[in-house]
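FAQ: What does a multi-protein file look like?

Like this. Sequence, then tokens, then the next protein.
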Amino acid sequence: MSELTSIHTEHAPSAIGPYSQAIVTDGWVFCSGQIPLDPKTGEMNTGSVDEQTELVLTNLRSVLEAAGSRMDLVVKTSVFLSDMNTFAEMNEVYARHFGDHRPARAAVQVGALPKFCDVEIECVARVG
């Protein structure tokens, strides 16, 4: 059976429930969804969707780095939005963070997100 390693970094928000920031197994990193929480204060960024997405992806990058991975090794992302009308705002920030790398992606509108934020992103990546 494969070993599961739980990842925790102070550079991203601590889990707000019974889960890990990420799990590493067999060369893969499975990152939990990140929401726009400031890792230093624990406060929610309630700004625009682009500001929230910026913080979400910064937090996700920190978790990936703690797991021995990086953004260009992301294979798949799932983006959850409170309103699909904000997709373009999110997508502009998302494109900046991933540069020329284009992981597979799903983007869906949901009824509500944790702490009633506007964007949450999770991913699966290779360890590198």
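And here is the next protein:
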Amino acid sequence: MKTVSKFSLTVMLLAALSFFSGCKKKSEDPPANGPVPVVSTINYSNVLLNTADLSGNVTDDRGLYVSKHGFCWSNTNTNPTIQNDTMVAGDGAGSYTGTITGLKGQRKYYVRAFATNSNGTGYGSILTLTTIDTTITDIDNNRYLIVQIGTQVWMAENLKTTRYNDGVGIPLVTDDVEWANEQIGAYCYYNNDPANAAVYGALYNWFVVQSGNLAPAGWHVPTDGEWVTLLNFLGGKNIAGGKMKEQGLAHWSDPNTGADNSSGFSGLPGGERICILQLVFYDEVQIFGNWWSANGNSGEKASFFSLYYMSPFVQSSIVGKTTGYSIRCIRN
């Protein structure tokens, strides 16, 4: 039988200890990718139908260039990652902001900041936000669809209310002479037919706008500037009308030029009740859609904006305050 010397046994023991020691050290090594950026989700604001503003901060880049930072979100995954919806806001360390888009109305979303370096992606804390409702209700319990166009939120239907938002009734004036001489707020229906309200809403004189109490809480009648913001977002007044008009010939007369309603505004040709030399008549339903602006002067005129069945153009002008026009409201 071969005898193992003490020297040989010692060598074998040392070799074994060295092997196990090496294995242990290898298991404690940091991951091959190394540390990822440290990022925090700061806040959200201006939550609308389809968008929300977010802010984040890369507080530690871990000594490596941050190739991108931004936000990720989901309405189903409570721990969103960059595999979900993502918005890249920029690169580098420090604070940043961004607007996430493509959201749906009246839904809860989970959002958080992220930052990526060559080692991988780090995430901030998860916040929850809920987009605004897809409808708005007036004091008469009429419910209106709403639409976000750019950063504005508009009613997508014409106003129908018969009361101010404080509960005071708006006079319904059907008599032509009374309408022509009215100097307080009044409303009517096209051809004095209440059935027209279901599609076209009511027609109002400008004095209801002047009251400041017409729109539902949190909403108002748009100013000239807000109308212009809308038109500019849609490419300018020469083409915006096509993007604002309801498609087809169900309500617009043929040819309804350029109408694709790509904005979702769903403009309808509700016509007008017009006063000319004390003559009062209804005109131009299915031809023109006319909407009051909140801008009036100290005289007898106020601003309006108009869509026409034969053009994608949006007209703006002034007209007598006793005219009956449609109204759309915009969110504050």
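Q: Is there any per-entry metadata?
A: Some entries carry free-text notes. For the entry above: DSSP finds six helices and 20 strands in the chain.
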